[in-house]
């Protein structure tokens, strides 16, 4: 009978170690997901796909002002990320370089689609592409 009790106790101990190991793995995995969600890449993707209009801008840039004015004239309110006012602005510009091949500002997205910079935006507004992207035809 003692051997049976010892056997059960040993199995409970092994099961407890197993459960503890699983809990540790889950905590490690969860912390990696939290870190990934704070990454510049995740931030950029979230901005692009969570907003009708997203502009990655710098507060002093005349081309960025021109792009914002274009949307203002269309009575549209873009979500603007001022890269020069963020500590991770240079990291976000590196993500944009990987994503669209440019680090320059502004970089404009409408309904998840990359429009380009200020000149590209004006061309899209003139030829009706912007209105199509906005769904305002």
UniProtKB/TrEMBL annotation:
GO term, biological process aspect, one: cellular response to oxidative stress
Transmembrane segments: none
Keywords assigned by UniProt, alphabetized: Redox-active center
Name of the protein this chain belongs to: Glutaredoxin domain-containing protein
Lineage, highest ranks first: Eukaryota, Viridiplantae, Streptophyta, Embryophyta, Tracheophyta
SUPFAM superfamilies in alphabetical order: Thioredoxin-like
Gene3D superfamilies from the UniProt entry: Glutaredoxin
Similarity comment: family membership: Belongs to the glutaredoxin family. CPYC subfamily.
GO cellular component, one term: cytoplasm
Role this protein plays: Has a glutathione-disulfide oxidoreductase activity in the presence of NADPH and glutathione reductase. Reduces low molecular weight disulfides and proteins.
